[in-house]
Design goal:
Shape: globular
Number of strands: 14
Mean pLDDT: 96
Radius of gyration: 21 Å
Strand content: 15-25%
CATH topology of the largest domain: Dihydrodipicolinate Reductase, domain 2
CATH class of the largest domain: Alpha Beta
Low-confidence stretches: none
Oligomer: single chain
Largest sheet: 9 strands, mixed
Strand order of the largest sheet: 13-12-11-10-6-9-8-7-14
Structural class: alpha/beta
CATH superfamily of the largest domain: Dihydrodipicolinate Reductase, domain 2
Order of helices and strands: EHEHHEHEHEHEHHHEEEEEEEHHHE
CATH architecture of the largest domain: 2-Layer Sandwich
Distance between the termini: 39 Å
């Protein structure tokens, strides 16, 4: 097999959830190898975690700045080629900008940044430096999401008229941050999470998913954001009304206080000639509905799926694929894009199918606009174009 892409990780220490997910996903196809890391803001903990992952002790760094500086001095055949960022939100911008300026490609967890100005700066610099930059909206990696995208693009639903996307969880129904729960603490802190909690954390995924499948971006929005649990600094529940070019309308719900819900991400798209329905907790199926009400259920691995969906399947039908595999599809596509740049060749037809820095900035614009709309109590222009 061709040589894996060497990467360093910032964040993802022993108490983190998403860092381990990224490492497993990157490792799944053998197309990435972890060679360096700064896993914690505590230098001792960072080095200890690097040792637990089997890293060369000299490359388990005490800080992300030290990692960028240390790797830059290594010979080209040893140094990392990309930086994976899995820190709290407020650190995404300085780390990503530092990585770009140091000559590294970037994979960054969402949201891209906490301000639109920072997000647009990353768009500008990544373009100027010609770096690959992926934002890990991993739900776009599911094969049946890709099938949904192809069905809409082919006109199977006719003109899109209504988009309903909901992402509801119940894990913050109590004030977990007051108990010192790490994930809740930083997500509820405006200094680290940014101006939003529910929208920034899960609503950004819902926004990205709807845009990926439909190809539509909202032109106007009206947001109602609320803090339901007393003592919480940021919103934990929100509803956003959307208007799209061409007359389509949308509804986006993001809630972290929906008692009993686990990871309920659902997208429904209604067109003039049909509808589709996808649920993340049953990701191997796509529900299609005809105007007559007749339902067709498509499953992973069945005959007749689009080439895009088929290219992202890993197992025969009936063998469920899930969260890690969706992440791994993004990592595989990024790796092949990087390898094509490095070694030449045409690459595959879907190697560029991953969320970009522009997609990340579009999500930050959505968050900022929704927060502003909720504060103003009115519809606001939601259009965004790359700088």
């Amino acid at each position: 097999m061709t040589r894996p892409i060497r990467y360093g990780m910032v964040g993802g220490g022993p108490d983190a959830f998403i860092g381990a997910v990224h490492r497993r996903a990157a490792r799944l196809d053998g197309e990435w190898t972890l060679v360096a890391g700064a896993f914690s803001s505590d230098a001792t903990r960072s080095r200890a975690h690097g040792a637990s992952l089997g890293l060369d002790p000299s490359r388990a760094y005490g800080s992300w700045v030290a990692m960028l500086e240390g790797e830059a001095w290594l010979p080209a055949d040893r140094r990392m080629e990309a930086v994976v960022i899995v820190t709290p939100n407020h650190l995404h911008f300085p780390i990503a900008l530092g990585a770009l300026e140091a000559g590294f490609d970037v994979v960054c967890d969402k949201p891209l940044t906490t301000t639109l100005a920072d997000a647009e700066a990353l768009v500008t610099r990544s373009r100027a430096l010609d770096r690959v930059f992926c934002v890990t909206h991993n739900y776009t990696g599911y094969p049946m999401v890709k099938e949904a995208r192809e069905r809409v693009a082919a006109g199977d639903l006719g003109d899109v008229r209504r988009v309903v996307v909901e992402y509801t969880q119940g894990w913050l129904r109590t004030l977990l941050e007051a108990e010192g729960q790490k994930q809740a603490t930083w997500r509820g802190d405006p200094e680290r999470a940014g101006p939003s909690s529910a929208l920034g954390d899960i609503g950004s995924h819902a926004h990205n998913l709807a845009g990926y499948v439909t190809g539509l971006a909202p032109t106007e929005l009206f947001a109602d954001l609320g803090t339901v649990v007393p003592g919480r600094a940021l919103e934990d529940d929100g509803t956003v009304l959307l208007r799209y070019a061409g007359g389509a309308r949308g509804l986006l719900t993001a809630s972290q206080i929906s008692t009993g819900e686990r990871n309920h991400l659902r997208l429904r798209v209604y067109g003039s000639e049909g509808a589709l329905d996808w649920l993340q907790e049953r990701p191997d199926r796509l529900r299609l509905v005809a105007p007559s009400g007749v339902e067709t259920i498509l499953y992973d691995g069945v005959d007749g799926l689009s080439p895009r969906a088929a290219a992202h399947l890993r197992l025969p039908g009936g063998h469920p694929e899930g969260f890690i595999e969706a992440f791994a599809n993004l990592y595989r596509n990024v790796a092949r894009t990087l390898r094509t740049r490095r070694d030449g060749g045409g690459g595959g037809p879907f190697d560029d199918d991953f969320p970009t820095v522009e997609d990340g900035a579009r999500g930050v614009h959505f968050i900022e606009t929704a927060v502003a709309s909720a504060a103003a109590g009115r519809w606001l222009d939601a259009g965004w174009s790359p700088p």
